[in-house]
Design a protein that fits this description.
Elements (H helix, E strand, L loop, with lengths): L1 H16 L6 H25 L12 H4 L1 H16 L4 H13 L4 H17 L5 H16 L22 E6 L6 H14 L4 E6 L4 H14 L2 E3 L7 H14 L4 E6 L6 H18 L6 E7 L5 H13 L3 E5 L9 H9 L3 E5 L7 E3 L2 H9 L2
Helix pairs in contact: 1-2, 2-9, 4-5, 4-7, 5-6, 6-7, 7-14, 8-9, 10-11, 11-12, 12-13
Bound molecules: guanosine-5'-triphosphate and magnesium ion.
The site of guanosine-5'-triphosphate (GTP) has 24 residues, from helix 8.
């Protein structure tokens, strides 16, 4: 497992290294090395990534943000208690930035709170803290009008007909695992789910999705390794329509030889979907790894440009003290966070609720 995480970290480093467009060659080099390594180590580790299904309770958001709360946000209450002076705002700024809230977002939040404190002549630290919490909730409360397939409780109830969810993100962020968890959740709510294995780059990726499909008891449409992802999606859409599926979730590759190839492939998949189902994809869900903090932001911009991300699923929130990244995701990308990953088990997926999340950060 340690090795697996280290491999993923290297991937992320490679992806970051190649982040600017002109560095595509550097990214290609990093990826080529990684591919060789994964040929030796990737298959077993990917299969390891599919856990057993047990009946235990899901890990709640409160538990998942424990590190972020203990390390950073838990301090903020204490800072406010010392009084509303300049040092408060400085320390608040430092703390938010350290929690990976991002410089721009942090400054915007503090400006807003300071303005409110001034305009409403707030003197009590408690009231100023409440203003901060309200501002934080507001940052998270993004409604783009897109991805309108979720009911208020995060279920797919409000959707009419089949919902197509295209899942994108850099390799190792948690796409396949999160798709497995979503499949599990919707199946448990009586939805008919079909998964499409459009990450045809590695055989292990197809097997991993098939395992999650088995675990959740849902069908997986897959071709061979190296097949055209567009063809997989075409077949999956046809199968989903024929079988009367409520939701089709499409897994995609997180790595190709170059970033340009990856984005082109995603655009092609997107076109295939749109040609077959005119109002689809109903959601383009970008999976970000919370442990990569601000690095996730640059990745997000590429996917946004290529396929127009409509929402984010923030995986691995349980493994980081940098949960502040949620605020910069919503603020900088202008898209909502739909779900958070709270662990590695099938039930470890939580619907994201802005207020509950902010309360959890300050609890205790
Ligand atoms: N702790 C924790 N681990 C997670 C979570 N989500 C995914 N993981 C782990 O992250 C690792 C990578 O997950 P994958 O689902 O294979 O990632 P991917 O984005 O599909 O990766 P590629 O197929 O290589 O692009 C696995 O070990 C997962 O168990 C989460 O919410 N919490
Ligand atoms: Mg995957």
């Amino acid at each position: 497992m340690v090795r697996f995480f280290r491999r993923k970290k290297d991937d992320e480093a490679a992806a970051e290294q190649g982040a600017p467009a002109e560095d595509a060659a550097a990214l290609a080099e990093g990826v080529a090395e990684e591919v060789q390594e994964s040929a030796a180590a990737g298959v077993a580790t990917s299969e390891d990534a599919v856990p057993e299904l047990d009946e235990e309770e899901a890990s709640p958001v409160e538990e998942a943000v424990e590190r972020t709360r203990k390390t950073w946000f838990g301090r903020i209450g204490g800072i406010f208690k010392r009084g509303l002076d300049d040092s408060l705002w400085e320390e608040l700024e430092e703390t938010l930035i350290s929690a990976d809230t991002g410089v721009q977002t942090t400054i915007r939040i503090i400006d807003e709170v300071q303005t409110r404190v001034k305009e409403e002549s707030i003197r009590e630290p408690d009231k100023a803290l409440d203003a901060l919490k309200e501002e934080l909730v507001e940052v998270l409360d993004v409604d783009t009008g897109r991805g309108k397939i979720w009911s208020p409780n995060g279920d797919l109830d409000s959707a009419e007909g089949m919902s197509v969810i295209l899942v994108v993100g850099v390799n190792g962020t948690g796409k396949t695992t999160s798709i497995g968890k979503m499949a599990h959740a919707y199946k448990a709510r009586g939805k008919k789910v079909i998964l499409a294995a459009a990450d045809t780059f590695r055989a292990a990726a197809i097997d991993q999705l098939k395992k999650w499909g088995e675990l959740a008891g849902v069908d997986v449409v897959a071709h061979q390794q190296g097949a055209d992802p567009g063809a997989v999606v075409f077949d999956a859409l046809a199968a989903a329509e024929k079988r009367g599926a409520d939701v089709l979730i499409i897994d995609t590759a997180g790595r190709l030889h170059t970033k340009a190839n990856l984005m082109e492939e995603l655009r092609k998949v997107d076109r295939v979907i749109q040609r077959q189902v005119p109002d689809a994809p109903h959601e383009v869900l970008l999976v970000l790894d919370a442990t990569s903090g601000q690095n996730a932001m640059q990745q997000a911009k590429y996917f946004t440009e290529a396929v127009g991300v409509s929402a984010v699923l923030l995986a691995k929130l349980d493994g980081t003290a940098k949960g502040g990244v949620v605020f910069s995701v919503c603020d900088q990308l202008g898209v909502p966070v739909r779900f958070v990953g709270t662990g590695e088990r099938p039930q470890d997926l939580a619907r994201f609720e802005a207020r509950r999340f902010v309360e959890a950060l300050f609890a205790g």
